[in-house]
């Protein structure tokens, strides 16, 4: 990643211009050729700097009122095996192994689940629970009650 | 939000082209005009149905760092503490959640060391302990939210 990539990132981290030729706009602002902008963006997609170019919906506004961060206490020995299985569930948006903070926080597997109904999320939690079985020594579900901020990443500042 | 909006949201969660006229290409796939797609995206963003539209960057691949952090905030001080935490540009999202640890936020920085600095500043400004929960490992997921 060089200065050109960083400038492209700065120009697009709040969003892509909403005009017919967004990559031309970026090129004009940066005073470089549009071919270079597109080349760099494609290269960043290939090497994973850009996960994808996409619309990011607000869960709540799509009717997903039940957004649960399900957290589980899994024996470290089995966590990768369990994490891989839980990540494959089609209602899980994020799945991570994170550190415990004993004694307050015994949980090390985090899986975000989303549903439009209360019954839906309960069914999802039951499904995770049945997959984990006795590998889970305890769990909790933290529902989000309010989005306080959602700006996306602002990694590179001018 | 009508059926066309729903189709736009569902389809554009998957990706968006890199070409001379990407809105034109995407609009053709959706069976609408370029202008209509742009206008509808603008409205979905203005209405807050979309929180953003554009490239999603991967902090760690860029040499930056991400962490999930949580604070136990006394209910009475909740909004005041939220304002302090949100004032950090490094805080990318912040959610209120049902738990003693009731504020959960993502910190994204240019460098791994900067995470610690942000956490220390938040602790200093709020007077509260920040539980830092950086990922040990990310498991592959493939979710799409149906509009």
Write the layout of secondary structure elements.
The complex is a heterodimer of chains A (158) and B (147).
Chain A: H1 3-12, H2 22-30, H3 34-46, E1 50-57, E2 66-74, H4 79-87, E3 92-97, E4 109-115, H5 118-132, E5 136-150
Antiparallel strand pairs in A: 2-4, 2-5, 3-4
Helix pairs in contact in A: 2-3
Chain B: H1 3-12, H2 22-30, H3 34-46, E1 50-57, E2 65-71, H4 78-86, E3 91-97, E4 103-109, H5 112-126, E5 131-133, E6 137-138
Antiparallel strand pairs in B: 2-4, 2-5, 3-4
Please estimate the helix content of chain A: 25-40%
CATH topology label of the largest domain in chain B: Alpha-Beta Plaits
Q: What order do the helices and strands of chain A follow?
A: HHHEEHEEHE
Q: Tell me the number of structural domains of chain A.
A: 2
What's the overall average pLDDT of chain B, rounded? 94
Q: Report the C-alpha radius of gyration of chain B, rounded.
A: 19 Å
Numbering strands along the chain, what is their spatial order in the largest sheet of chain A?
3-4-2-5
What percent of residues of chain B are in strands?
Answer: 15-25%
Quaternary state reads heterodimer
CATH architecture descriptor of the largest domain in chain A: 2-Layer Sandwich
Overall number of strands of chain A: 5
Number of helices of chain A: 5
- Estimated radius of gyration of chain A: 20 Å
Which structural class fits the helix and strand makeup of chain A? alpha+beta
Spatial strand order of the main sheet of chain B: 3-4-2-5
Structural class category of chain B: alpha+beta
**3D shape of chain B:** elongated
């Amino acid at each position: 990643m060089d200065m050109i990539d960083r400038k492209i990132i700065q120009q697009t981290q709040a969003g892509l211009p909403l005009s017919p030729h967004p990559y031309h706009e970026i090129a004009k602002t940066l005073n470089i050729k549009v071919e270079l902008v597109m080349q760099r963006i494609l290269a960043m997609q290939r090497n994973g700097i850009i996960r994808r170019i996409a619309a990011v919906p607000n869960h709540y506004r799509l009717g997903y009122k039940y957004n649960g961060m399900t957290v589980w206490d899994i024996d470290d020995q089995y966590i990768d095996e369990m994490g891989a299985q839980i990540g494959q569930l089609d209602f899980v948006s994020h799945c991570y192994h994170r550190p415990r903070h004993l004694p307050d926080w015994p949980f090390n597997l985090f899986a975000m689940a989303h549903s439009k109904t209360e019954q839906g999320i309960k069914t999802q939690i039951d499904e995770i629970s049945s997959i984990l079985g006795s590998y889970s020594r305890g769990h909790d579900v933290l529902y989000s009650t309010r989005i306080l901020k959602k700006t996306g990443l602002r990694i590179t500042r001018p | 939000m009508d059926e066309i909006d729903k189709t736009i949201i569902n389809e554009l969660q998957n990706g968006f082209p890199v070409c001379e006229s990407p809105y034109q290409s995407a609009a053709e796939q959706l069976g609408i005009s370029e202008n209509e797609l742009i206008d509808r995206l603008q409205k979905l963003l203005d209405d807050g149905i979309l929180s953003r539209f554009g490239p999603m960057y991967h902090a760690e691949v860029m040499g930056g760092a991400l962490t999930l952090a949580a604070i136990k905030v006394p209910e009475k001080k909740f909004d005041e503490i939220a304002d302090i935490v949100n004032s950090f540009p490094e805080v990318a999202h912040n959610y209120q959640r049902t738990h003693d640890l009731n504020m959960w936020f993502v910190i994204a920085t240019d460098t791994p060391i900067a995470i610690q600095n942000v956490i220390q500043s938040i602790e200093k400004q709020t007077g509260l302990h920040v539980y830092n929960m950086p990922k040990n490992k990310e498991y592959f997921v493939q979710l799409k939210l149906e509009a």
